Amino acid sequence: MQVTETNADGLKREFKVVVPAGQIETRTQDRLAEIAKTVKLPGFRPGKVPMKIVRQKYAAAIMGEVLETAVNDGVQSAIGERNLRPAMQPKVEITSYAEGTDLEFAVSLEVLPDITPMDFSTITLEREKAEIPADEVDETLKNLAQRHEASEPVKRAAKDGDIVVIDFLGKQDGIAFPGGSAEDYQLKLGSGTFIPGFEEQLVGKKAGEASVVSVSFPEGYGNAELAGKPAEFEVTVKEVRAAKAADIDDELAKKVGLDSLDALKTAITDEIGRELNAMGRAKVKRKLLDALAAGHDFQVPSQMVEQEFEAIWKQISQDREQGRVDPSDEGKDEDTLKADYRNLAERRVRLGLLLADVGQKNQITVTQDDLNKALIEEARRYPGQEHLVFQYYKSNQEALNGLRAPIFEDKVIDFILELAKVTDVPVSAADLRKDPDEAAPAAEAEAKPKKKAAPKKKAAEKAE
Predict the structure, then answer these.
(1) Per the record, which residues fall in region Disordered (predicted)?
(2) C-alpha triplet 284, 285, 291: angle, nearest 5°
């Protein structure tokens, strides 16, 4: 086998590989000999079929297998002899082959760059720290008490915030439609539970009063047969109940699984503290990634950039189809947007390669204990289904790798932060929670495609 390098431009490598016809024939004969040991044909005992007949019957069938093996060996030879580190799967193109002749093919690939990390001790960062506001703990307790509110019957007209117990029957053109009726339904006025306009028409109604509520279903309503169409609901108010928030005491704590009010306050305080610390870390990580991006400008494999760009652009396209457009993208034509997101893709690839290199050189690994903690956190997101979560990750290596990657990244980030000069700066909780994009819209330090942030999970929700 002859391997000749034909191009070495930057990270690109190209080779011409020639596998002599004699080697192809030897591989073919070896494979036919294996088949001949077990082949069964009429008129012959197993293993006694003449090689000429075996060749006539099976040579064409095994040729693809023989050529594939020869190509794989050629690719491995080109890579292994030069200690190359392919960035992605090499591309192979057969340029010449006919039975009885040499096999010639071209191999093209991109290699991973050699990276020289900057001196991390030269990085100077400020990490925002915030005290836990006492009024925020109190507000969380109030919200928790409201969610565990009770109610009591009142002899007056219903007002916003009251609970009305109703029977209703929905009709279109005088005909009742499926799913449009219920009895003894408890509806909190002002909650937005029902379609727009329904709850407002029950304000001022008293127990025993019947009325007809006229509304129109929204255009985007889940039931296409009802979407955008008018309807009438025959409604009878059977009872009006005034909502009353639960008392903030030990009983409230017990409702959320804690022993006392003090324990509940501690749990809320701890949760707010974890939230603020996580936000502080996210912001300093963002600043660190900006510094790392500014401090490194090595070449990155174009194939990796293109793959990353396609993933980003697919997400952006889906968001735009659903009406979610980042404000900073408004008014830009598609070519400009693609150029912006291709730059983002290049940044993400460069940072990913840098962090991987730092982790490898400093023997940073993800332990089984790290994975177990991540699995437990993931399982907690699905109460009552934890065993299914563990089973899913146990049987899905790709999903497990998806957990491993962010753990590895965080450990490398922590390693670099230990070397950098990081100064804690006191700020208010409100300032800490501000979106960094509002202060620096040009930064994309998290190296993620732009999308709306998920709503923050309140401490009271976690306490439950």
Answers:
(1) 428-464
(2) 90
Contact 306, 88 (CB under 8 A): no
Neighbour-count burial of 181, counting CB atoms closer than 10 A to its CB (0-12 exposed, 13-18 middle, 19+ buried)? middle
Cα–Cα dist 46/33, whole Å: 13
Tell me, what's the pLDDT at 26?
A: 92
Instruction: Report how far residue 105's alpha carbon sits from residue 94's, in angstroms, rounded to the nearest whole number.
Output: 4
Set out the domains of the chain in order of their start, with CATH numbers: 2-110 (3.30.70.1050), 120-132+259-463 (1.10.3120.10), 150-244 (3.10.50.40)
Q: Nearest-5° angle of CA 45, CA 47, CA 53?
A: 90
In this prediction, residues 353-381 reach a mean pLDDT of 93
pLDDT in tens, 250-283: 999 998 899 999 999 999 999 999 999 999 999 9
Residue 117 has pLDDT above 50, yes or no: yes
Task: Provide the CA 88 distance to its chain's centre, in angstroms.
Answer: 22
Long-range CB contacts for residues 32-35, cutoff 8 Å, separation at least 24 = 32/58, 32/59, 32/62, 35/62
User: Residue 149's pLDDT is what?
Assistant: 82
User: Hey, which residues does 426 pair with through a beta bridge?
Assistant: 129
- Tens of pLDDT, residue by residue over 127-136, are 999 999 999 9
Q: What is the pLDDT of residue 276?
A: 95
Do the beta carbons of residue 88 and residue 301 sit within 8 Å? yes
Query: Which residues contact residue 74 at a Cβ distance below 8 angstroms, ignoring those fewer than 6 apart?
Result: 1, 3, 17, 19, 105, 107
Residue 222, number of CB atoms within 10 A of its CB: 8
Report helix, strand or coil for 338: helix
DSSP 169: E
